[in-house]
Amino acid sequence: MKELLMGNEAIAMGALAAGVSVFCGYPGTPSSEVLETAAKRKPEGVYVEWSVNEKTALEVAAGAAYTGSRVLVTMKQVGLNVASDPLMCVNYIGVKGGLVVLVADDPGPISSQTEQDTRNFGKYAKIPVFDPVTPEDAYEMIQDAFYLSEKIGGPVIFRPTTRICHSCAVINTAEVKAHENQGTFVKDSRWVIFPRLAHEAKRRLFLREKELGDSLSAYPYNEISGRGTLGVALGGVSAAYAKEALSSLNLACKTLTVTTPYPFPEKLALTFLEGLDKVIVFEELDPVIEEALIFLCGKHHLDVEICGKHSGHTIIAGENSENIIATELADLCGLEKPLLPAKDGETPTLAVRPPILCAGCPHRAAFYAVKQAMKDQKAVFSGDIGCYTLGNAAPLNMTDTCLCMGAGISIPQGLARGGDQGVHFGFVGDSTFFHSGITNVINAVYNQSDEIICILDNSTTAMTGHQPHPGLGKTLMGDISEKISIEKLLLACNVKSLRVVNPLNLKDAMKAVEEAVQESGVRCIVFRAPCVALFKPQTKAVINDCRKCKKCIKELGCPALSLVDKAAVVNEDLCNGCMLCAAVCPHGCIEEVTR
Amino acid sequence: MKLDCLLSGVGGQGIVLASRIIAQAAMEKGLFARTSETIGMAQRGGCVVSHVRIGDTVSPLIPLGGADLLIGFEPGEALRCIAYLKEGGAVIVSAKAIQPVTAALAGKSFDASPYLEGLQRQAGCVIVVDGDAVCKACGSDKVLNTALLGAAAASGRLGLSLAEITAVLRAKLPPPMVLINEKALQLGAAAAKGE
């Protein structure tokens, strides 16, 4: 059937066509839609779960693959850091059913903390990596990845990037057949990791590299085309941009497209290098193909100049594009740069539009309450990963640190232990709390930290598209499960005090903060109000006779408030009726009206 | 047929859905289509750009100077993407500016006119659509995307007919939303024709 599918949807459909019976993962842009699609399109008998974090997901996946079932586990690149412990070990242990670890990389980065390259992770861990160029290739290649995983009896990494994950293409999908999960675990000493076994495994993994690289040299998605003395080596979506750039420059050259960067298809690459003077490599993130070619030239004493990130010929960070590649090619070959249509006249200054918290977002209210309560005191506000990272923006300026998932709780502990004076606050969302916050609360209590942990509970995983989590009592399969109470968990950790408030009630919220400041030890405040994207607002704010003091605008930075003739105006399409502006207005000009 | 169409605006305006509808309509006609979309953090009130490529292509992104059509959901955001427009390409743009928080914080008013003028200067064919009026007539602020699709189809620059887009709306949207979106499509089309 022909369907318009996003790369992530195509990968899920390809995995279903390959007979995958267990899917698990943790949401993270740009990977989240794979599991959501699997949940939506799965036939009877397929199991799908949002795990509590990536490490857990990979461990569940490994267990399922031990039984002989095919398993896809999904995460974003920084999620792989969390899952790296089981990943390294399961590669030594091996699997029975195909285990593919989908890790979505984010060149730019567009919505991530790092610009790390999972191809290098694969090389480091000695795990084969597939790297598709288009969504339609991804649909086919994910099926090949399962075949390879079973052939080698070990995990395989599938690494798309944002422009594969989040671009759609017309794809011919095969019918997905219902099947039953009939895996069985067969007891054997091979499933228990021990130093002697690890020593053997290390040798095996090292020695298979060459053989696998040679067999991947014949993989149809790795290809050489064209001729000439200039070589262009390509990986990922850059291959698509480069094809367009080469045709716009009308440049004759020999190209090599590498879709299995590890183990590197050396045999194919040697054929490519034959007769070339110079090669330029276009790939995003790390110079993986570039370094493999440099290594190959050294190993075989080839006199071919390899140009790329190391030589300064191509960009080191950020996304590629047709224009960037055309310009770099033109520079290298001494050609005229591609001409763009001339644009006349002056251009007015364009607005700066950073991403911001939505109108009515309860996180804004929570940040504002803490900020007001701490107005005259020294305090540090440590944030975490989620929508609430946007609390860093003016005018709130309520995120002094942000490192990685869970660190919003542990950084304040370190700041105080390092000698920093004042009150230390940590902010963490509900899904992040379950992901990696709980262990950090335990550490803080056990080690007698002095901090106030603010849990911003909006009852969803908002930033990545509203996935359910353990606090909500429902699963990705649509089942109702036992709700896990954040309050009970905190109390079980023996925190010094616990308050639950609605952040949209500014007075109560500020009072909770003021009281907590008076105490010592690990104090917790749960700010609970649902994400505004989850319900339709019943009311809206209206400003009558604005006194033009601008306080609501200057203090809140709400996108529903704007200035017209120096007066504050509510954009009623955007307003969600949170009424925080009414609480801030010193003149009582703002009232709530029914929609 | 080969056509590159860029859509730009602000997060929350329904740009991703609009790009899917164009690509789906092209697919229904038997053409190959691609889109590339902004999803995630940038959607929270930030700049959103969608690329739609109809016909045989490999790359998901329209090259600079390659777009036949630019559909702007906001004047300033349309102007931000003007470098993608081909010589002789057309712009369909909603007249209403969306004030960024940064402008309000700086105590400045935010007006569409310099951006609309900028577009007029830099593109040969600019069709300004009063998208706000269409939304008001339909009683929903969520139909700006369909209104602009209607205008684009009626301009003859999209290579798709109103009937072809209507068919996709009927197939893709939840039933209660179909009627109001068909109305927005027609009103958008009428606006583009100056009716």
What does this structure look like?
The complex is a heterodimer of chains A (595) and B (195). Chain A has 20 helices and 22 strands. With 595 residues, chain A is α/β, with parallel strands linked by helices. In chain A, helix 15 links the parallel strand 14 and strand 15 (423-429). In chain A, helix 15 (407-417) packs parallel to helix 16 (430-446). The model of chain A has no long low-confidence stretch (mean pLDDT 95). With 195 residues, chain B is an alpha/beta fold. Chain B contains 8 helices and 6 strands. Chain B has helices spanning 15-28, 75-80, 101-105, 113-122, 131-138, 144-154, 162-172, 175-192; strands spanning 3-10, 33-36, 47-54, 67-72, 85-94, 125-129. Chain B has a 6-stranded mixed beta sheet, sandwiched between helices. In chain B, helix 1 (15-28) packs across helix 7, helix 6 (144-154) packs across helix 8 and helix 7 (162-172) packs antiparallel against helix 8. Chain B starts with a strand and ends with a helix. The model of chain B has no long low-confidence stretch (mean pLDDT 94).
Task: Please report which band the strand proportion of chain A falls in: under 5%, 5-15%, 15-25%, 25-35%, 35-45% or over 45%.
Answer: 15-25%
End-to-end Cα distance of chain B, whole Å, is 29 Å
Name the helix and strand elements of chain B from N-terminus to C-terminus, one letter apiece.
EHEEEHEHHEHHHH
Quaternary structure state of the chains depicted = heterodimer
Number of strands of chain A: 22
| Percent helix range of chain A | 25-40%
Number of strands of chain B: 6
Anisotropy-based shape of chain A: globular
Query: Could you give the order of strands across the largest sheet of chain B?
Result: 2-3-1-4-5-6
The largest beta-sheet of chain A arranges its strands as 3-2-4-5-7-6
Mean pLDDT of chain B, as a whole number? 94
Number of helices of chain A: 20
Helix share of residues of chain B? 40-55%
| N-to-C span of chain A | 44 Å
What's the overall geometry of chain B? globular
Specify the structural class of chain A.
alpha/beta
Number of helices of chain B: 8
Beta content of chain B: 15-25%
Q: What Rg of chain B do the Cα atoms give?
A: 16 Å
Low-confidence stretches of chain B: none
